[in-house]
Amino acid sequence: MAEDCLFCKIFRKEIDAKEVYRDDEIVAFEDIRPVAPTHVLIIPKAHIPSVHELTDDHAAMLAGMIRVANRIADERKIDREGYRLVLNKGPQAGQSVYHLHLHLLGGRGMGWPPG
Ligand code: 5GP
Ligand code: ZN
User: Fold this and answer.
1) Is 41 exposed, middle or buried (0-12, 13-18, 19+ CB in 10 A)?
2) Domain that holds residue 90
3) Is 113 among the domain residues?
4) Nearest CA to 72 among 14, 28, 12?
5) Using the 8-state DSSP alphabet, how is residue 66 labeled?
6) Measured in angstroms, how far is the CA atom of residue 33 from the centroid of ligand 1?
7) How many whole angstroms separate alpha carbon 27 and alpha carbon 30?
8) Per the structure, how many domains does the chain have?
9) Whose CA is nearest to atom 24 of ligand 1?
10) 114 within a domain of the structure (yes/no)
11) Which of 10, 67, 102, 107 shows a CA-CA span of 20 to 30 A to 78?
């Protein structure tokens, strides 16, 4: 837990978010500036700054985050058309919040390579 971290505050419910999933370890909520019809952020309770700090000890947690993303994709029926899971690391990738978060994007066609 980091005192001044935006996503730690969302996990602790000190800042409002439109939650779509919660358990003891993971929360998922709507992105405040969605870039696709489905744009959900999946975060762990643990304050891990980015994907780069993940170790083998986090394997189950990371699998849990992906499981939550898959479940939300199923609920929104975007599993057949497809969806994208994104972990941005650092400024060149566009990371703006330094608490690990998995973007679930779907509901529209997406280009490749990404911008
Ligand atoms: P990043 O650019 O770090 O990969 O993604 C951070 C995401 O967090 C952005 O898509 C941004 O719109 C979202 N975001 C930033 N502040 C808030 C907030 O206060 N509430 C919610 N729900 N999303 C936020
Ligand atoms: Zn945090």
Assistant:
1) buried
2) 6-106
3) no
4) 28
5) H
6) 7
7) 10
8) 1
9) 32
10) no
11) 10
Atom 16 of ligand 1: nearest residue by CA position: 32
Residue 49 forms part of a structural domain? yes
Is there an atom of ligand 1 within 6 Å of 88 CB? yes
Of all atoms in ligand 1, which is nearest to the CA of residue 95?
Answer: 3
What is the 86 CA–ligand 2 centroid distance (Å)?
Answer: 18
For residue 46, what is the domain's CATH number? 3.30.428.10
CB 31 less than 6 A from any atom of ligand 1: yes
Any domain includes 19: yes
Q: What is the pLDDT of residues 44-79, one digit of tens each?
A: 999 999 999 999 999 999 999 999 999 999 999 999
- Listed as own residue / partner, the contacts of 54-58 with beta carbons closer than 8 Å and 24 or more positions apart are 54/100
pLDDT tens for each residue of 3-51: 899 999 999 999 999 999 999 999 999 999 999 999 999 999 999 999 9
